[in-house]
């Protein structure tokens, strides 16, 4: 719903007249970005949601993690979870710019020269794997429950779509909103092709993290901002194949001093770690049925499909369940 609303807003009242000359180009651009987003969403849904549910359940069962050490009102606890997770998201984004190996994956997101709401889902598969794996220790250390994680993710993703959107938001409203959340004017600076501006405005939901840590930056006239990677031709990083190759390609001025072999090493290590986590789930009593039981407990009334029903559906479709 948020995506549809922002796409309509971009069409009726854009900030930059990016695609007026060619609606076909806008469709191609948005289609590629949304295809990447769908692939990432499928990866998270089929692998990492189960891992996060296990971590949340394990933490709750054994009373592990910071928040399980205090008797907190549920609403106070939820507010603390949102703040702590958003602080972690700020730190993770900062690391993606400061650690050269992580930057090689993250720069696919910054390579978009026509930022709009679809850019919000343009992340390399490797970056999604890294960030999803690191969610596991964060959930355990903080003692986050599954429904609390869902609430934060929904809030954060809505604001991420908003501040990536190419919408004509009046400056007075942008100025008022950025007292609390990240706004388009803030995030346009972050997507500038000038490194001084790229390495600023890291926060995703609440704007105050950048103010607290001194990474807040604005451009007097955002209309003068140019998006993308400096010294890298736009055509070299826009096709699906080029986007997937971005971490492993030598792009002028954006490698930040790390060799391709370390990028491959990190990527393969992340894949092996993911496989290890999946095997760990298979070797425990954690099944999809238990995941669904946790969802039913935390979200009463939400329809779910049971393990038996899923197996039957897969059998009818002549498919073998990958994780059952």
Description:
With 324 residues, the protein is mostly helical. The protein contains 14 helices and no strands. The chain has helices spanning 2-12, 23-61, 74-98, 100-110, 125-142, 146-164, 171-177, 184-190, 195-198, 208-213, 240-245, 260-282, 288-298, 307-316. Helix 3 packs across helix 6. The model is unreliable at 317-324 (pLDDT under 50).
Explain briefly what this protein structure is.
With 324 residues, the chain is mainly α. It folds into two domains: 2-283, no CATH class; 287-324, no CATH class.
Short descriptors:
disordered C terminus; single chain; 14 helices; 324 residues; mainly alpha; globular; 0% strand; 2 domains; 61% helix
Describe the SSE topology.
Elements: H1 2-12, H2 23-61, H3 74-98, H4 100-110, H5 125-142, H6 146-164, H7 171-177, H8 184-190, H9 195-198, H10 208-213, H11 240-245, H12 260-282, H13 288-298, H14 307-316
Give the radius of gyration.
21 Å
Task: Count every beta strand, where a strand is a DSSP E run of 2 or more residues.
Answer: 0
Which structural category do the helix and sheet elements fall into?
mainly alpha
Main sheet, how many strands, which sense, barrel? none
Number of helices: 14
| Fraction in helix | 55-70%
Kindly state the mean pLDDT as a whole number?
86
Please indicate the percent range of residues in DSSP E strands (runs of 2 or more).
Answer: under 5%
Encode the helix/strand succession as letters: HHHHHHHHHHHHHH
Low-confidence parts lasting 5 or more residues at pLDDT below 50?
317-324
Number of domains: 2
Globular, elongated, flat, extended or rod-shaped: what is the shape? globular
